[in-house]
Automatic annotation (TrEMBL):
PANTHER family xref list: SEPTUM SITE-DETERMINING PROTEIN MINC
Record-linked Gene3D superfamilies: 2.160.20.70, 3.30.70.260
Stretches assigned to the Septum formation inhibitor MinC N-terminal domain: 14-84
A UniProt-annotated Pfam family: MinC_N
UniProt keyword Cell cycle present: yes
Domain Septum formation inhibitor MinC C-terminal: 155-256
InterPro entries named in the record: CAP/MinC_C, MinC, MinC_C_sf, MinC_N, Septum_form_inhib_MinC_C
Function: Cell division inhibitor that blocks the formation of polar Z ring septums. Rapidly oscillates between the poles of the cell to destabilize FtsZ filaments that have formed before they mature into polar Z rings. Prevents FtsZ polymerization.
Name of the featured protein: Probable septum site-determining protein MinC
Family: Belongs to the MinC family.
Claim: Cell division is one of the keywords in the record: yes
Protein source organism: Candidatus Berkiella cookevillensis
Record-linked SUPFAM superfamilies: Cell-division inhibitor MinC, C-terminal domain
């Protein structure tokens, strides 16, 4: 006589929706030397920020003539210690090449959505000059299906290092400090009624009218509709550690005292 014994074990994996902020490198023309020089200039400003940074290669404004050019671009970025993880805007004949190189095919950028002015706020939660040839933007790429929650969000607890708060379809209001290594994302405005020491990305879907407000500017990075400033740029201003509002004027970030 035999007895079958079934041993239940915990699952080996789980699928979860997540949002990651990736740097998109938007190319306007194919000139490897010029691209390399402009990358060096950007990296020199903040070497730690770009070290082993995952990037998306954006070809929406660039005409690629051959598969060799795609391969050369990937090799160039890897040589600069950047890690290409995806590509967008490539024609169909080059998508297979990108997949063979281990890159994900990402959707093209969408026009900025119109945010309803009458959206209800949710309950508190606990927790450049001329167009350059190469433009580096901090875009929010949704890599898997995220929450369907929409509207503004109000956060009352401190946002600690490693935490990410996202407000889809509305504004994000934080009534507490935001620590180094924390990240705030909103399709609308961002209000921080305390020190902002982490990253703040407003208008992540392309809304150029979005504004960032904070009581004390100490941020690692601020971004509106993909245009950004990093801590080295912000520290040069006499508005460092002061109450400010940050907005986009002629496609350039402008920091003003409150």
């Amino acid at each position: 006589m035999t007895t079958d014994v079934t041993i239940k074990t915990s699952p080996a994996l789980a699928l979860k929706g997540s949002l990651f902020t990736l740097t998109a490198i938007q190319l306007y023309r194919f000139d490897l030397l010029e691209i390399a020089n402009e990358l060096d200039s950007k990296i020199k400003q903040a070497p730690n920020f770009f070290q082993n940074t995952p990037i998306v290669i954006d070809l929406q404004s660039l005409e690629i003539d051959s598969s060799t050019q795609v391969t050369e671009l990937i090799a160039l970025f890897k040589k600069k210690k950047l890690i290409p993880v995806g590509i967008r805007g490539a024609s169909n004949r080059y998508k297979d090449l990108a997949i063979e190189a281990g890159l994900a095919i990402l959707p093209e950028a969408k026009p900025a959505p119109k945010i309803a002015k009458t959206a209800k706020q949710s309950a508190p939660e606990e927790i450049s000059e001329a167009t350059p040839h190469t433009s580096i933007k901090a875009d929010t790429i949704e890599v898997t299906e995220a929450s369907n929650q929409t509207g503004s969000r109000l956060i009352t607890a401190p946002v600690r290092s490693g935490q990410q708060i996202y407000a889809p379809g509305g504004d994000l209001v934080v009534l507490a400090p935001v620590s180094h290594g924390a990240e705030l994302l909103a399709e609308g405005h961002i209000h921080v009624h305390g020190p902002l020491r982490g990253r703040a990305l407003a208008g992540v879907n392309g809304d150029k009218t979005a504004i960032i407000y904070c009581k004390s500017l100490e941020a690692e990075l601020v971004s509106i509709a993909g245009q950004y400033k990093i801590i080295e740029d912000l520290k040069e201003s006499d508005l460092w550690k002061r109450s400010v509002c940050i907005k986009l004027v002629n496609d350039r970030l402008q920091v003003e005292a409150l």
